[in-house]
Amino acid sequence: MSDHIASPKLYVGIFLALMVGTALTVFAAYKDLGPWNIVVALAIATFKATLVVLFFMHAKYSPKRTHLVIICAVFWLGIMLALTLTDYHTRHDFSFLRSPATTVTRSV
Amino acid sequence: MPKVHYLNASYGLKSWLLTTDHKRIALLYLASVTFFFFIGGLFATMIRIHLLTPGGFLVSPETYNKLFTMHGVTMVFFFLIPSIPAIIGNFLIPIMIGAKDLAFPKLNLLSWYIYIIGGCFVLYSFSTGGLDTGWTFYTPLSSIYSNSAVTPAVIGVFINGFSSILTGLNFLVTIHTMRAPGMTWFRLPLFVWAHYATSIIFVLGTPVIAITLLLAGLERMFHLGFFNPAMGGDPILFQHLFWFYSHPAVYIMILPAMGVISEIIPTFARRPIFGYSFIAGSSIAIAVIGFLVWAHHMFLTGESVYAALAFSLMSYLVAIPSAVKVFNWTSTLYKGSISYDTPMLYALGFIGLFLVGGLTGLFLACLGLDIHLHDTYFVVAHFHYIMVGGAVMGYVGGLHFWWPKITGRMYPEFLARIAAVVLFVGFNLTFFPQFVLGYLGMPRRYHSYPPEFQALNVMSTAGASILALGYLLPMVYLVWSLKYGAIAGPNPWPATGLEWKTASPPPTENFDVTPVVDWEPYDFEHRPDLALEPGIGGLLPAHGDD
Questions:
Q1: Does residue B312 lie in a domain region?
Q2: ipTM of the complex
Q3: CB atoms closer than 10 angstroms to residue B436
Q4: Inter-chain touch B240–A84, beta carbons under 8 Å
């Protein structure tokens, strides 16, 4: 548990940064960036979440054990995303393994 | 028996419903989890009776779908997941580490209330027509097409998840911060290590299922397109997110049971456990690797060949820490002074049944074989060997092992041994024929089957009735023992853990004086307080011992 008391000025600053982030998200949603749409949206969201965790949840002022817990949680989220994406990004890469006969049957 | 203990320290309904004593909360869980076990058992009984004839004679096909769904939802979320952690773990973890209570006693009580609220939603769903999606809630059936009471069930399971998260959090903080002087990490009972690993899964996995079910619920209620292809969603995504939690949830069920077995085996073999650090480490390894295998449930649902290969390989890896445990338990038995008391019968039964369940899991992790076995009764038999043969055997064995500590009285040993054998026989007769049925091609979740499968189905149903008797017997004699059982004394077996150093039943504060631990775990040899006969208590196996 952190005893650190952050100044109201800091909280207002973070709040404004989050508002700017929200405005940016809406702005980006109206721009067609092709495959970068999702990247930009997630980048802004990650930046905002980081601000919330660091300052509103006091992670910045917490002991190292708390940092470890947060890092573990983010790492686990990474496992979930990365292994799920191994499926989505490789669905068609192994079609060469199919025998011609199978391919014909399937196309029929 | 001590004059004042946690059971009679205060009286009245209020003293129970507002208690913050982890032991009383464990008993609240015991009552409610047993209630759900009987509800789930009732559905199972109806399923087995229905399948006595090829056409099925008891219920309509629609009702049959609801029966297996409600059986699964009840047993998985309201019996198997909370059973050992919330009852036996809740009762024992603080005592085993020499603490007075869990780190957050009020949060512990809140966990129980959340469990009850979640349970009420699910019961409401059952009583307003039930649900027919399967316990897996696969979309778009659950989110679009099903006309059954899916929404309250999803809300109930969502709420119940927070009970698990809070229990896991409580255990983690307690184990980290409240160990008695001298209770180092490597002096912790393996039961505590198992619960530490389980708690990691509780905290890291449960939020994912909660949010996934929330998304499915939102899709159903407000037609938001998360998983429905017609609205730009992806049904396979639901399966990824669902199994990201629900496969590790299998380890939530089995790891605590493994912890129970690790306590019982050395006690009744009178030997220090073989390979303590490997068993402790394998619990953590199972918890971690268990998060990397989920898509083996989806080999035939359209995932990529590359992902299937990767998940197949990682699924095989879980066998290693599981095998480490089995080898170490059997090595502990070697040259032990074994007594076949009831808890030991359950432990030995566990090893055999878990072995069958685990090895058939490897069949299903094999990409080629899974094509043949996927969604057949082979899968049903496999996971019942793990969940009933493993987790429930561990739970009932643990209940017997610590019953003297919980109640201060012994159960009738002879009757209990008979019940253990009846359970073992009934279980195998119920589920072994299902391996054969599945291999021969009988699909799961169907209300009827070809006539040539009838003999095996009748065997299975006959086994289920023996199994039911095996569960009813302990229910009767454990209640009987509350009044008529022999006084147990602090350490009836005797066993080496700290929980056996305090009175049975323990005082509200667990120990009159905070204990200091100056012995190694499972060390019978240097414990004159256990009053074992000379020569019994076992040396560690000598180097090169064959």
A1: yes
A2: 0.86
A3: 16
A4: yes
